[in-house]
Amino acid sequence: MKIDRRSFLGLGLGAAAGIALSPVGVKLTDDSSIWTQNWPWTPVPEDGKITYDRSVCNLCPGACGISVRKINGRPVKIEGLDDHPINHGGACLHGISGLQYLYDPARIKTPLKKTGNKFEKISWDEAISLVAQKLGEIRESGAPESLGLITGADNGSMARLFDRFMGAFGSPNTYTMPSLESNLAQTAAALHSADRRLGFDLDHSDFILSFGAGIIEGWGSPVACIQANASRRERKAKLVQIDYRLSNTANAADKIIAVNPGTEADLALGLCAVLLAKNKISTNTLSGDVSKLPFAAMLEKAYTPDKVAAITGVNAADIDALAMAFIKAKAPVAVPGKGRGDAGSLREFAAVQALNALAGRLNKAGGAFVMCPADYLSFPENVVDATAEKGAGKAKLAGSVNELADKLETDGGLSALFIYNANPCYALNAPEKIKAAMDNVGFKVSFSSFMDETALKSDVILPASIFLERLEDVVSGAGLAKTVVGLCRPMVNPVFDTKHPGDALILLARAMGAGMAQSFAWESYDACLEQVTGKIWDTLSGDGYVVINDKPPVGTPRTDFTFLVSAPKAAASNGEGEYTLVPVDKMRLAGGAMASSPFAVKTVPDMVLSGKYSVVEINPATAGVLKDGDIAVLKTAMGRAKVKIGFNEGILPGVIGMPRGLGHAFNNPYVAGKGANVNDLIGPVIEPGSGLDAAFGIKASLSKA
Amino acid sequence: MSELENKANDDGPGGGVHHGTNNGPEDDKGLGLGVVFFMGAFLVCFLSGWLLFPKLLYSKKEQPFNFDHNLHVEETGDCESCHYFREDGTFSGIPGLEACMECHTDEPMGETDDEAVFVDEYVAQGKEVPWLIYARQPDCVFFSHAAHTVAGGMDCKSCHGHIGESSSSRPYEENRITGYSRDIWGKNIWGIKKNSWDRMKMDDCADCHLERTGHKGYCFQCHK
Amino acid sequence: MIENKKVHKFGMVIDVDKCTGCGACMVSCMSENNVPFKEDESNKKDSITWMRVYKLTNGKSFPETEIAYLPRPCQHCGGIGDHGHSPCVSVCPATATDYGYDTGIVSQIYTRCFGCRYCMGACPYHARYFNWWDPKWPEGMENYLSPNVSPRMRGVVEKCSFCYHRYQLAREKAMIEHREIEEMEYQTACTTACPAGAIVFGDLNNPAHKVHQIVKPDPHPDPMNHKVVGKSRNPNVFRLLERLGTNPKVYYMSEREWVRKAGDNYLKGEWENVKTHHGASSSHG
Fold this sequence. Notes:
By secondary structure, chain B is mainly alpha-helical. Helix content of chain B is 47%, strand content 4%. Among the domains of chain B are: 2-59, no CATH class; 135-222, no CATH class.
């Protein structure tokens, strides 16, 4: 017997036939096709019981109620809370994508300490004792006032706790980032009285005169404003938008008044002048307002229709007609704050509010409300020792955060700085200047949740749990005509080794010992909140919100026009160039302390962000040799950026609109490194009398790249 | 190459033309051997395909501890006491520890080793029991228990068989390629089914749907 | 039993005049349906957005310029004559997408799709998207994925499902309570998210539903173009490329004529004919 190739053939054929007749073939075919459909690396989300938890979003001052859908306790979706008095079930894209912030690649996972240029992980104990030791040295040196604080919001228990800390420590140097809320508070202080807030009753107004306010683009409490706008048709309420570009709000408006950028205040005063000249203002409405006569005289002299027309670019007849339409409406209201209202001059805000005052629209349904602050917090008396008293009694270094930056850059003056809920190294104009100012502070402590531009400049980071991981009271504000306190609740245990900033403060105060520890004698922030919210705690924790007030305030407040009479000059756009560059706020791009989420950035159209370029809007009529889609170099006195040209018929000739909220520079590839930060190109113009950065734009030139 | 050449040389003298006749008897032997090889290989492969292949294809895993369905059904009276609908109409599936603790305490109720494992390793530590689910469908499948048992009037047995009468947990077999439970394809390696619960592939769903509703159903009816 | 149930025809009407272009619907959709995201999403051709908001302009110079935002989910076409032969369904060689005659929803099985992308070519609305890459979530972010929609993999096409899983959940609740689902129990994620209330969703076959009351769909074929069924009898309501006879179940509404005109491509003079004879759309060709 010889084994030849036929034997092998037989072997092979036999094996093939055996396998063919066995189930191997059919089974492997089926299994392999299944395998190709279910890659092992495709995630399989765990199923389970669906529950819904109520909370409040605090990504912006909107204070919307949210409903968090959970599967077996794991949050999977954020939606608007149906029965919430602010947003009535609606939600904005940033709130809906809130869960992405939990796992954001830029989140700070543990306390950090900077050594050289690198951050080093440290434990909470180390971090607290390190900060406490530094602060202790400052207090011992007898200059507690050299501790500064830059914060984002100035209401709610967290703001009060920081104030309390500063008070017990002994420093007056607290600075709030400019926001619609702070601008309105400053306006109220200048025109009415200190410690008042302004609200605009858009829901009941039948004639909204918006001075560039992006009512459907993130102004105020964004969802409430979008809903107020959506109901206009049924209510037969008009919207007139004063703007220099066809914003979405302008597009939704019944009428657009095209105005030269930065002249909104002049137009508002021009409208006041028309009303006065035509005796449309009953003197009763101004009784008791001591400065009305000088104000009237000023209007008569400086704001004649022709003069206003020349400044604003709106013709005199239109100004006249607008004033008459405004005063004839049943419930008109004038709304200040261009875009989101974060920037602007006090002159502009005050001029618009003066129009409300002259037209008798204060504290009337559908008008402008001068409201008392939400007074629901009662803290035990702060323990202030002699050192603290002496320090806190000293004058503030500067009037505003912008002035502070100037001061720090030139002479220094702070030995330590706390930064909470703010990203000044991105959000303020000329961030490089802010960074230089930060370099002149010896010891910077950040309470940020994310490694953003400002956190990167810090020396120690005490990372904060985000709103989905913590308990906190959230007060409505930002121009909302009602006062609602909502309760933000932890929806999930902290994902990383972060703490509630309130707890971090309590630990810090405890580590400082003595009076500081007595001031912060609570076991935890949660215990503190329950104590200080006192009477409303039961309702707040039960319903998730408390409506403090939703009616017009009683009585007509006094209006003091002295600030306007002092004739503050309009801020001019500085620099050189044939164009005026203005920042443009977009609903889909967050602009403040919070960067956008990956989802939000994904929704940004290619007419706003194209590849790595910001797209700037420019009217084809003044584009010169530039064509739509060209890459160009945009140059201002502050800097230059490569941008893409986007032709837009809807922007005033000679104006370049550049989106705000792009050009972040931190470690989140989904959000940062896209486009340019418009704030880099604009220099601050500090307004005398208010300290606000009144820059509405800057002169710019464009050349083909 | 050289071997082939040698082979060609061996055949050489015979030449191509005489190949068939000259080597006749050897050829027969060769064929006979070929048949033997064929049969041998056939049998080995066929039998391994039948017997060895399933053993290789599936990995066996034991449940965390033995579960006596029969005993529990006797105590509670039905399936729904543990496998219930939630208020929102979704099906709870295998009960979590919390549901077990409605009857059980942190003291063993019985005297079996399994009970001790349950109490010591899971109840005492507040840990969920990582049951291996025989009937688990892949993630792309949506299955509504409410549609089948409440609206369709089917009983549990139609799909799950007599698991409620078992007193011990059989090993969980996982397909090494797909990661599916063996119950999806069925115990029979050919996929031949005798009972309605023997196999739970898409065609089995579609057949029943066609029979009962007149239509196999649309994609989203069973997929998500 | 399914065959005894009333046949639904789920659809939506979007008030273009109310839409502010805020993007809440897009994000609500992405977060509801486990839609992935990439580092660079500025190339909109490969950016998976089941719901996409398009910006329209009337093409006029300032100050007559007007813009409108047009949210575009899958149109859930009924196909010519509304018989269920949607453009995408008819071309799928894998039967990975089909038309649900009980709901009117174009459904699909992601795992069955082998990525030929014929459906994308067939869809006149660019509503379908291909997964060129495997989805990748930053570390830990898989934790927010919902079990109600299976995450897709590289090589398959996906699109809006009218949040079918929400229908399933609503049905399950109704079934154990032995009743039919109610209008507000089944609403898509984009509808519930819209802060302007611009989207109305419901059963076009149910006269009690708001969407039916707004759209007033004509149950008879259009006498001028038999391919078209379900044309709105509301003069402000239109569908995209209606004359093709794809019979979408997504309707749009606008008081502005130029917006309604933007819903199709008209030859010179054609629009005047269409707008004055509303409900009578002539066939292409």
